[in-house]
Amino acid sequence: MARGRQPTGPGLIRVLAIFGLVTRAGSFRLGPVDLVVPDDRVLVVLGPSGAGKSMLLDTIAGFRAPRHGQVRLGGRDITALPAEQRRIGMVFQDAALFPHLSVRDNVGFGPRLRRRSPTVDDLLDRFGIAHLADRAPRSLSGGERQRVALARALATQPAALLLDEPLTALDQPVREELRDVLRGTLHDLQVPAIHVTHDRDEALRLADDLAILDAGTLRQTGPANHLTRHPTDEVTARLLGWTELGPAHRDIDGLHVGELPIDHPAPILPVAALTVYYRPEEVVIGPAAETSEAALRCHARIAHVLPTLPLARVQLHTTPTITALLLHRELEHLPQTPSLEVEVAIPPHAIRVIRTGGTAGTNTALNSATSPSRCPSEQHTRIPHHD
């Protein structure tokens, strides 16, 4: 749907919609924010620390009053309602369990408070914590506490669910395991869900749709698989794993970054600074590069190999430096003699040329076929595209 257009009709029963939302904390301003989240989509808000992600959730939940704008749930304006009347479940980074209650009583607290009676045992089973039902929160691990917090949020049968970085404080193996549990749970729920994080891997694992937030401003929104391939903004590109190659210039021989020629149809724009970004995992090195379609092709010596996991980092002697991410089994095909050069190729889909120095929402990616395909009718069941 178009940005700012308020959806109407019978399909609104399970839609969370935010229109022109603006809020402040001291000198920090969030917004305006326009988002529409249907019940069959998980929206992940990705941004660095201090971007305003928690402030956005607090405003939607009713813990903070907006300066302007509107929050609607199921077609109903809930902007002025107190938090306890909004039927919005929220899970925080700190599980915030009741220390004097058992796991079972923590999960069942909400249903008793709201005079509901969902099956607590079903939720304990869903999150794999049935064996912990009689334990006190202080005896649980961090991952177990977060499972209890998630179960408690769902026990109230919320009409929408907000998740404020609930996995951030967990160890990596536990965090990865809970991502899978959370992904399945959010889709089984069939309620609008917004999850905020600064972790790119987590965002891409959970998101159907992405909203990139930086310094209180939405930079780009849309389906996650589209934004990952087609960032139109410097902030979006960096947050989604694109690496800056460097500023571009054009001469009679075409587009260049340093000494590297770029075969790219970026137009000549007056008074426009251009920056080239690439995906390190798409860099091809060695014999395969000779036959690969490429927007950037060169020969280079290998400067350094870092055996990081799961992908090794290979730095190349180029100006500017290119870093490739390779599978470890691919390293054995690289020359062992430092003086030998290898062919290097970066395919066209892994190169982005972005106009830099603009404000949020006005930067343009100067790439062919970058516009997202739209549904035949832009209904409320699709987050608006701001690119």
How would you characterize the overall build of this protein?
The protein is an alpha+beta fold and 387 residues long. The chain has 2 domains: 10-87 and 158-229, Rossmann fold (3-Layer(aba) Sandwich); 234-356, OB fold (Dihydrolipoamide Acetyltransferase, E2P), CATH 2.40.50. It has 9 helices and 20 strands. It has helices spanning 53-61, 103-113, 120-126, 142-155, 172-189, 200-206, 224-229, 234-239, 287-291, and strands spanning 16-25, 28-37, 42-46, 68-73, 76-77, 88-91, 160-164, 193-197, 209-214, 217-223, 243-251, 254-257, 260-262, 273-278, 284-285, 296-306, 312-316, 322-326, 341-346, 351-356. The protein has a 6-stranded mixed beta sheet, sandwiched between helices. A hairpin with a 2-residue loop joins strand 9 and strand 10. Helix 2 (103-113) packs parallel to helix 4 (142-155). The radius of gyration is 24 Å and the shape is globular. The two termini are 13 Å apart.
